[in-house]
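Deliverable D4.2, example record:
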Amino acid sequence: MRVEGLETLDYLDNLSQRERFTEHLLFAGGYHFDLICFFSSALLQPLSGLTRKETGIAASVLWQSLSSVMSSANYEVRAGFELKVAALLADIAAANASRRAAIVVAGGGKVVDWLLETLPSSKDGTQAEAARALAYLIADPNVSNDVLGRPHAVPNLLRFILSCQPKKHSRRSSLDISDSLKGRSMLVAAIMDIVTSNCDIEKESFKPSLPADADLRDILAAIEVVEEGGMHVDGTSNGDDDENDSGKGITGIGIKILEGKTVLGLSRTSRLMEVEHDSESADDIPKTLALLNKHDSLSNAKNSSNAVVPGLWDDLHCQHVAVPFAAWALANWAMASELNRSHIQELDRDGQAIMSALMEPERSVKWHGSLVARLLLEDRNLPLNDSVSDWTSSLLSTISQASSNDDISLALVALSAFLLSIERSPEAHRFVMEKGLQKMRDIAKRTAKHQQVQASLAKALELLATKDTHLSLEESQKWSGILLSWMFGKSSSDPIRSSATKIISCILEDHGASSIPISQGWLAVMLNEILSFSKRSSTKGDSQPKSGKVKTQVDESNILLASQTANQLAAAVVNIAVKQSEITEESTDNFQLLDLLNMEPFVGPFKSLKKDNILKIDAADSALATLRGIKALTELCAEDTLCQDKITDFGILCLLRRFLLCDDYEKLAAMEAYDASRAPEGQERNLNDQDNNQSSLRVAPIGHIRRHAARLLTVLSLLPKAQKVILEDKTLCKWLDECAKGNIPGCSDAKIQSYARATLLNVLCNRKTRRNNSTDTENVNNVCPRYDDVIFLINPELPHWRSSRLIDQSNESSLGEADCLNDTDKFSLSEIPQVDVVFIHGLRGGPYKTWRIAEDKTSTKSGLVEKIDQEAGKTGTFWPGEWLSADFPKARLFTLKYKTNLTQWSGASLPLQEVSSMLLAKLVAAGIGDRPVVFVTHSMGGLVVKQMLYQAKKQNNENFLKNTVGIVFYSCPHFGSKLADMPWRMGLVLRPAPSIGELRSGSPRLVELNDFIRHLHKKGKLDVLSFCETKLTPIVEGYGGWAFRMEIVPLESAYPGFGELVVLESTDHINSCKPLSKNDPSYTETLDFLRKLKKHYP
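Output generated by the structure prediction step:
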């Protein structure tokens, strides 16, 4: 009897027009079978001529015939027919991609199912041919997912792999690729290529190859293999023959670990093969498929160098393939769906399968095991496994091993799971804090150049150190060097810096004065970085206009001063670190802050410290170094927005917050005093120190640190990124408001109060404007006032300062809403000041000291450079804030600051024109000039205002020009000053500053400016009040009361030739703006002048 299998073969023969001969055989039981013999030389070429549709039909018919034979024929008939069908399918699959696609869809996948089921159940040739067919299918990325996604595909492949393990004491050579082993060898290689192909990609790029609704039995089989290294295989033969022992004699597939990565592939014979591709370009054929075609080809190779990977392969054991494949399957199922993850969690309740995968030496198993752990931990709908803390330990070991081998892909996937484990599991969190921090530090040092690893480690440490548990002081010191490298590293990203900032903030909060070496080190490294940035910027462009060259000189002066300060600050960090660690010269190589001190700029001072004696440094020395560091940083960045951006990214806001809110240096001084009193013979030593060393009596200048920190914060409050940080910090906002009101003991200084209020105004108005109107930065800047560090608000505690510029525009709905602290003060439009009064000092003056009266002032004796503002407890009477604000309440009072010097020995300064342009821009940005404004000036300050008005005219700033309604001149040198003549004549000795040359008597520029102001006054647009000194001013004071005195601004120069003139009797140049009392003409005349103007400009 003929079986249906012949009809299928006849159909295929007719399609391919190939020759065959048939031998009729009779088997026991009466079955007849035609043995079909093909000409092997015409095997592949005819099959390649079939279309995809024809191949699919043929494969379907073949499946139907095979089913008929399997159901009716005896064992011998079935075995023979299975072998022929498997071989035919393998030949079709080897042809090209369209043939493989047709086989996969044939019979609704039944053909592939039969091949998969044949693998573990068949022997010898049939298994080898089925394996060969599946090898081609799995190696083709276009159909591999369809094959591996078939029901029970993974368990069948696992059974096949486990049945192919080599027998004990097998001496088969890896070069033996006999026909019975070739197919098995090819399939295992294809599987392992799939397993290892995705072990170097990100989780987001990982595309699951297995279905979302996996059978529980399939998942269970994979878990069993991963956990136990094997599975229960049914129907396994125990034959002794190497070729027929259920495939157990497989050789020729190899695995070796090379530099931490797994490499898999096929063994090669000494005979080289050439690949023949039909209808496919070499570029379109997958790597593994090309290797399989090479392995399966019967043609000799002509180009051997492209086909051989010699010496990489060895005999393969089942644990090298089955476990990696099972782990791969679990990862794909877990990635595919939440349902699969719940099944994995349910079947592996004790977490041992994941734990086993993480502990496997094979890299791909660790990689996929880490991915499964991550996916399970990411799914918040799943209960937390009890073994997570054990996973964490293994994950950390995996990361450490991977970092040692520079295996970044494995380290990253393990880190992602590690992060989730410490985030979700308190036990895992506790384990790492107790036993894992040292290993994390080692990993951080080994992977310093890998940004992604550093970012994950920084996030992990942030989770560990900023939540319920914090770092101890010892651990904080050990981490300090790494934290600062995260902050300032060239490859550091914003997330890394953000994590480092939060961690250091917690360290400073937790350990206070003991953490000063870290906070001070942070400032020192930041200053060093900004110095490098500023030096690079200053070297760009040699050809500059004259004004630009003057600006460059100022920048260079700031850089020089900052360089000296940076060196002093670095030395202070080294000394305070060594002192706090209580180490000796012999132990400087082994202490907690070693990593910090091995960074720049501490390396040099630290090495010098090893050679020389350890210097004694106290809290006052350390505080002074910090103060200078903040000042230098502010000078470098005050006018440089790029610099401001950089220090904001470097976490300066965290440091400033610490300096403002805390008194670490005062606490450090108290700790030092306490330690000294408890030391042996402490009292005697203290007495000797008080007699011989006055530094022991010094108080840490925390007030000055706070003032300069507040100044820098005001500068940064104009940056949108800084505004966001400040607004989110409610504690800081509350402190700033209370400081501006004078309710905080450390905020008694008028400058600090002004900085605090200005910072809040900058931040709050920008927030409101962006929320209500626009996110466009230019529009926001046009609406909101921008107060920087040169504009001081007088009496910032007054209610009208808690409104924004929106109030000025008569937006009644905004009244009282500008304060983020929901201040209850309400304002009516009638109470809002309608005029601004701006005070501008002169040469070598200041925003407060110029207008401040000494408490013990009884005469006009005073030096040109006053020191009242610098003496503790001698602040004097600031008459604009104490007298004028009460007598002239409906006005906003400002005072300005700009840098001036008599000679260049005192430092570089800008000329008059540059100073005026700078101040004009800042006044306009602050909204000064939008309503009537009166300038009250002293000495050179009057010339600055005249130049500003002239500049406003040139810039067509009619609003500013129109709203400037009055100027008060105290001893203004309208036509020059004798003081300017003296250093100019002695230029080689005194090196006069650029601005001094413009103050010389008879300067044409001064005449031009005066004519311009005269024209405004004549047209009734500007009122002028002038004061004149009548007494010689002491310039240099000597011993015994001797002083060199001179008339700085004579009457003919103090009177511009228009407006009112008040001659002040017995008053010198310095004190012309310092009324003795409210009855002094220098005050009463100014007050009357302002009141008259107010009537004209309601």
